[in-house]
Amino acid sequence: MALHTESMWSGTVDTEAGAASGWHHHGDHDTTLYVVSGRLRLESGPGGEVVVEAGPGDFLRVPAGAVHRESNPGDGTSRAVIVRCGSGTPTVNVDGPAPSPAPTHTSTPTSPSPASTDDV
Q: Which residue of 12, 17, 100, 107 has the fewest C-beta atoms within 10 A of its own C-beta?
């Protein structure tokens, strides 16, 4: 069941246990998910390092343009109600999340070793 207007889409999505989507974003659409049953995992952020899990009664928000993927880490089928508001292409598939930032190496200034008692 789905409802579609010029600037809004809403419907239900069932996801089988262990299934995962590819990496994608929703362009200019803001998305709200309400988990009806089962489990839902959402990965996003640089390197996909931000992971949120939700269960029945939880809401999740995916901001416009946020690269992410969803999966069902549970043992049974999950069901979510999705409301997506915006304009333009609703789903844009991408190769993966933005890369994780490279680690920054900081150097610790070396200080002279403390004077030994022999130096005094």
A: 107
